């Protein structure tokens, strides 16, 4: 089993994920895995990075497929002493012109952006080594202020919030979206926004669990990478993918013993924001 340090990036074949892999290949002392749902696109991305003199490794990972997630976790467990960096980047966003009913958009967006991310964490968190760094890609749309309902805000920001309670809240959103009464229930009309609010809230719950974990110095943060020129933004964002990678990579490489930037919501300029107020 390799004693080499290990960094993993989900959804790494394009956009911000690709740029994060590129930077980690240059800055992280260990193996960097570019993972992607599609093997062909993943290997093509590795080839492009090889052309830059970088040496990422590749493994197929469809974050929405339980078998794929389990297979990847088994591969990591069999070949490495543990995980040192995990960047949960894979996500989807429906376009503004999407014709699918809002209930369909809500269900699919929550399935991929929240529940699939959580399943990757469930599979890989037991493999994290002491001192590991986890980065959950959120968004400016993932601020608590996106939620209109005061009672929902109170529940989502509760320091006693559990994963089960958060799961139930996002399921309520999907059910309300399907029923067409999500606005009356206090939810916004943005499936992507709710998914990223949930990712941000999950991050705080995860850090509380790590704080009680016998493995020392495990840090998880959520990050708004900025409005980046990617397929997801229909190339409307002003930032390059390299600029979008800066804050996630910074959080991936936080020094040992980090106590301030820990379980926080971090902006693209690397500053910590008050999730409940910003």
TrEMBL record:
Disulfide bond among keywords: no
Q: Is NADP given among the entry's keywords?
A: yes
Q: Which PROSITE patterns match?
A: ADH_SHORT
Mind telling me which Pfam families this protein's record contains?
adh_short (PF00106)
* CDD domains named in the record: carb_red_PTCR-like_SDR_c
UniProt xrefs under InterPro entries: CBR1-like, NAD(P)-bd_dom_sf, Sc_DH/Rdtase_CS, SDR_fam
Keyword set for this entry? NADP, Oxidoreductase
Q: What is its EC number?
A: 1.1.1.184
The Gene Ontology terms for molecular function here are:
carbonyl reductase (NADPH) activity
Q: What family is this? A: Belongs to the short-chain dehydrogenases/reductases (SDR) family.
Put simply, this protein is called carbonyl reductase (NADPH)
């Amino acid at each position: 089993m390799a004693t080499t340090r290990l960094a993993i990036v989900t959804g790494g074949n394009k956009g911000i994920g690709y740029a994060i892999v590129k930077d980690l290949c240059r800055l992280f002392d260990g193996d960097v895995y570019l993972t992607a749902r599609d093997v062909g696109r993943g290997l093509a991305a590795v080839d492009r990075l090889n052309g830059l003199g970088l040496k990422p490794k590749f493994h197929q990972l469809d974050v929405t497929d339980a078998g794929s997630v389990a297979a990847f976790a088994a591969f990591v467990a069999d070949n490495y002493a543990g995980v040192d960096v995990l960047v949960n980047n894979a996500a989807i966003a429906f376009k503004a012109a999407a014709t699918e009913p809002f209930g369909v958009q809500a269900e699919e967006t929550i399935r991929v952006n929240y529940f699939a991310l959580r399943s990757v964490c469930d599979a890989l968190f037991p493999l994290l080594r002491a001192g590991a760094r986890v980065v959950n890609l959120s968004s400016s749309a993932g601020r608590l202020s996106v939620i209109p309902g005061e009672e929902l805000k109170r529940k989502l920001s509760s320091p006693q919030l559990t994963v089960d309670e958060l799961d139930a809240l996002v399921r309520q959103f999907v059910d309300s979206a399907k029923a067409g009464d999500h606005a009356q229930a206090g939810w916004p009309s943005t499936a992507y926004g709710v998914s990223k609010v949930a990712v941000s809230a999950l991050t705080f719950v995860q850090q509380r669990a790590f704080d009680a974990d016998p493995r020392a110095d495990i840090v998880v943060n959520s990050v708004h990478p900025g409005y980046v020129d990617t397929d997801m933004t229909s190339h409307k964002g002003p930032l390059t993918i390299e600029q979008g990678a800066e804050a996630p990579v910074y959080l991936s490489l936080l020094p040992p013993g980090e106590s301030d930037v820990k379980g926080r919501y971090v902006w693209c300029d690397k500053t910590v924001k008050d999730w409940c107020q910003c």
